[in-house]
């Protein structure tokens, strides 16, 4: 990397060298999958010596930067402004540099960490300063469900916002932990980084797997090995003990079944699951009292979740989707009654069904 180029680069750009600047060899960036520098500070890439390398750099940068983001190509005493989307056209040499202006303030992980720490500082927000892991628990749960709603609606703008709210919850908890010497955000990130590398030897190591099922089976073997290495207490834990008890029942059931299936505890064919559904329906019909009905319905729900798993459907999402569909159609029935100046309780089932079927025809 030729640092002697720096003064002439900024002279050509007619810019004062910024107080913060990332210097990086273009080939290092091209070999990455995610830009290794904060986007709210400018960067200078050196050695952009070919159109092919420029295209590789463009693909990595587009993970964070919008395609219309303007940048400067510098070659000797000449500079050229173009969009990120157009990078890769024209001529390049070993002395070609790419100056990448910063994105807006607050677009880096570090900047977000700073404002969250400021919220907790003596001159921060009274509400944020009072929070604990326990008081934030309900907010984490609420934000998780709001994110799920955005995902169910396939609403990209809402997903972006709700994922930000979730990130705030994680960062706040990490900041609280930092202040009480429990752990830091760096430890949180480092821990999950190590876990991902450790549990993906087929990506970061020499293990070969030939399917998604192979990945999951190997995943369970690795987790079992980790439990044994963590000591006697963890050895006593079963395969299903890591599933949170606070999960919604459908999600919990599907996770139990997924984990059991990874070690071979599963029906050999889906027909066995379908037969079990029919069997459980008959047992519900024959239940003699409320206790038996409750038990048999629980068994039926469980096997229906298994059927969803076999059909590659997320049971929780499927039911949430049906709930939403019911809500929309029933609201249409209510509006129909209101337009007629009537109460729902005064309508016959046939009259309400007519509105319901109309809602179905409208695609609700």
Describe the structure.
The chain is α+β, with helices and mostly antiparallel strands. It has five domains: 3-100, Methyltransferase, Cobalt-precorrin-4 Transmethylase, Domain 2; 109-199, MazG-like (Helix Hairpins); 204-235, no CATH class; 249-311, Helix Hairpins (Orthogonal Bundle); 317-361. It has 16 helices and five strands. The protein has a five-stranded mixed β-sheet. Helix 12 packs across helix 14, helix 13 (270-285) packs antiparallel against helix 14 (290-310) and helix 15 (315-339) packs across helix 16 (349-361). It starts with 5 loop residues before the first helix and ends with a helix.
Distance between the first and last residues' Cα: 60 Å
pLDDT average, as an integer? Answer: 90
Q: What's the CATH topology label of the largest domain?
A: Methyltransferase, Cobalt-precorrin-4 Transmethylase, Domain 2
Summarize the helix and strand pattern as letters.
HEHEHEEEHHHHHHHHHHHHH
- What is the alpha-carbon Rg in Å? 28 Å
The helix fraction, in percent, is 55-70%
Taken together, the total number of domains comes to: 5
